[in-house]
Fold Beta-glucosidase.
Amino acid sequence: MTNLFPKNFEWGVATSSYQIEGAALEDGRTAGIWDAFCEDHSRIADGSDGAVACDHYHRFREDVALMRELGVTSYRMSFSWPRLFPTDSPEPNEQGVRFYRELFAALHDAGISVMATLYHWDLPVWLARRGGFASRETAQVFADFATRLFSLFGDDVDYWVTINEPSVIASLGYITGEHAPGERDMAKAMAAAHHLLLAHGLAVQRFREAGLRSKIGIVLNLVKYVPDSPRPRDRFARFKLDLFYNEWFLSALGEGRYPPLPAGFLRRAKCHPDVHHGDMEIIAQPVDFVGVNYYTRARVRAAHCPSQMNCVLADDPGDEATDMGWTIDPDGLRDVCKRVYRTLRKPLYITENGAAFDDELTGGAVHDEKRTDYLRRHIEAVEQLLLDWVDVRGYYVWSLLDNFEWAHGYTRRFGITHVNFDTGERTPKDSALWYRDFIRDHRRS
């Protein structure tokens, strides 16, 4: 691999609040939607929750020291909304504010920039009871939340992210019910998809009004969908999934319009979102960057079923896959980034990329050759993007730590650092040591 990475390229790691912080009901934090979702233990693969998780709330200095040892230049994290605003009062919880200020100070002392996500799925229960993102009101409440955080933390944050993966929130939270809030209502899903984008746009407006020197963007999860066969029905099934999970968000952000949905889909769903005058202009206003989360390619097959999409994800026989069952396809990263760059024409950051494998701690080490190979091949794809004149400015591994992996609980390990969930002990895996050495060899001074 040659070294085409520019001088200021960000080499990072990523996490999210509920997945690592723990201290779920400490120091004034109230319940979020994932706390409520996990109360039904049947919803989580191992019946667990994020009450303790990686205990990052108490061990953040240890985690910052780990990042410094790895040589990363940037850390992507997210705020816990119910920790900062445990009620609907506009007054913040000072203990929550202090935690994030101390975290940011430790990161800056270590020479690590901060990419902070305003919403990575940690909605307070008090707001969920008012309808959550299925309600238009939440977009305005989110804008107020963003304004307060801009005031509280200002330029301590180098890169602000408004919303993480709106397509996943809408689909898994409101269509399949696999994620919090656990709804299965297509009308609510379409409403949430619109309100999430509206919330993003309103927050960007507030950011510009605040006059901060930092940058702001949004993070999209993009999947490369391919048809299971050349048959028209499989190709149309692929088109429908791509339309809703990818193109819906790209068109809104880049062109200020939603793409037309197939007539049959609309007849079944009866749920086109209620778009008010001026909404699309708010959504499509310019951002400073776009984050791309990429994990897999997905093969799509038409299905005779009552599903709104009338399609299923098919197996990819013979192809490599992670423990999530996700096909390993570094070329897919190139494809989706080219598409985003062509559509939005903004600098890109690969804000999440990583793999879950069944790691074992043996003799004080984790020899995770598959993950190391995964990272190496995807970073090579990023370098190819630079050769293709795509403006990529950073790469963040998901994740720094093994953590609470949503509905999978602790049964899936994405971290480049092994976490003993009984003791909290951290052990860098071989992939972390490889990443450390790679950064050292490719970071330009």
User: Anything to note?
Assistant: Residues 186-210 form the longest helix (25 residues). The first strand starts at residue 10 and ends at 14. The chain has a mean pLDDT of 95. The radius of gyration is 21 Å.
